[in-house]
Each structure stands twice: as structure tokens, then as C-alpha cells.
Amino acid sequence: MKTLGILGGMSWESSAHLYKLLNQGVAARLGGLHSADLLMRSVDFAAIEVLQRSGDWAAAAALLGAAGAGLKAGGAQGLLIATNTMHKVADEVERLSGLPLIHIVDATADALKAAGIRRAGLLATAYTMEQDFYRGRMAQRHGIELLVPPAPQRAEVHRIIFEELCRGRIIDASLAYYRDAVRQLAEQGAEGVILGCTEICLLLDPAKEISPVPLFDGTALHAQCAIDWLLGGTTFPPTGA
Q1: Which of 30, 107, 158, 166 sees the fewest Cβ atoms within 10 Å?
Q2: Minimal CA–CA distance to 36: which of 44, 47, 46, 25?
Q3: Which residues are catalytic?
Q4: Are 122 and 200 contacting, i.e. CB atoms less than 8 angstroms apart?
Q5: CA 111, 220, 78 angle in degrees (round to 5)?
């Protein structure tokens, strides 16, 4: 088994869920008392959120890149950024850390293509829905068009993530709001909907939802790719390749 480094804490709620998925997946594959060989650097999300809000992505990249380099020094052979939004700086983090990075967009795109989906909805933070780093990579590398909700709905989806889900708050009214957002994206022509923030699966569980279109949990798909890599079944090119 390889050793995987994880940049987590953004938020710790979703990082804890990802940690569980990775260990459960390795145990299911190998049986017995096996668990994943992991190193995690859990950062203070408050510091990262300030940099996000101020648009200082260079400082965020430097912070995460240095943390990734520390994971490499500790023995990590590959890297996972346990958040969708911070994949905005994935190329810089990979370069600064010196580790190959398993990209969440590629993991999600593989599942969409396997399902024959070429037009999908995206629910995520406002940064992920509105900036090009996620949608652009999905279109340019994988030929998949992404639809996002209108601006007022994007703002509420974002608010629920930061004010509720990142703080461990699960509210029924917010679940209903997300369900309605999925329905509207399906009505716009989405063939599936990506849960493109690592916290959303804590509210909207694809395994339990009766949805008008398939739901794709980016966290679970990222974990599945990482498990394949840990156990030697997959290699990944540099994120900028």
C-alpha cells in the first residue's frame, strides 16, 4: 500500500467523513484489520476562509503547498486536497508540495462519463460554481458542460455550506432547499447533479435521496480514486498536464 497525504480541515466535518470513507474502502478491499496508510495535515479553516473571501489565492496556495511539502517530508507519496474549492490552487499546491495530486474534478468526471452524462448540474460554494477552475477543467479536459443555479440560489447554497454544514448543523429547511435546487437543475436539462462541495453529502445523501436525476457525490468519488491509488491500481498525471 502507498502512503497518501491529505490536506484537510476545510472543513474538519467533511475531512472526518473522507477519513472514514478511505478507511472503510481499504478495509472492504483487503479485509481483516486493514486500514488506509494516511498522513493528514488539518489546517485552521478560519485562516483559509479569510484568504478565500479576500481573493488572496496566492497566499492560500503557499500555505497549502508548504503543508503538502511537510506531508512529503513525513513520507507521503501522493496528495489529496480534501475540499473542492481549494482545487482552484491545485496546480500550485502540487508544484510546491512535490507530490502527485489526485484531482477531485477528474475523479468526478470519470463517474459522469461512465454514466453517459455530458451535461450536469453543480451545487457547490459560490467560488466553485462561479469561477472557472472547476467548470473549465470539466469542460476542457472531459467535454462535460456544467449548469449552475441562478445568482440568488447560488448565494443561499453557499450560505448553507459555510454557516451550517461546515459547523455540523443539519437543518431540514436547508435539505428541502437543496432538493429544490436539484429539481430546478434537472428542469434546465441537467442529466445528473454533482454535489461539488465536500460538506454537501452530509446534508444530501445520494444513497437515501429519491432524485429526478442521479446525484454524484464528489467526496465519495474522490475517496474511491484515492483508494485505487493507495492499492496500486491507478496512477495520476500532474494536474497541469
Answers
A1: 30
A2: 25
A3: 83, 197
A4: no
A5: 95
String of DSSP letters for 112-135: HHHTT-SEEEEE--HHHHHSHHHH
Instruction: For residue 82, report the phi and psi dihedrals to the nearest 5 degrees.
Output: -85, 55
Joined grid coordinates for residue 74: 513525513
**Do residues 50 and 208 lie in contact, with contact meaning Cβ atoms separated by under 8 Å?**
no
DSSP state of 73: H
pLDDT in tens, the chain (241 residues): 999 999 999 999 989 999 999 999 999 999 999 999 999 999 999 999 999 999 999 999 999 999 999 999 999 999 999 999 999 999 999 999 999 999 999 999 999 999 999 999 999 999 999 999 999 999 999 999 999 999 999 999 999 999 999 999 999 999 999 999 999 999 999 999 999 998 898 899 888 888 999 999 999 999 999 999 999 865 554 454 4
- Nearest one of 240, 14, 18, 9 to 133, comparing CA atoms: 240
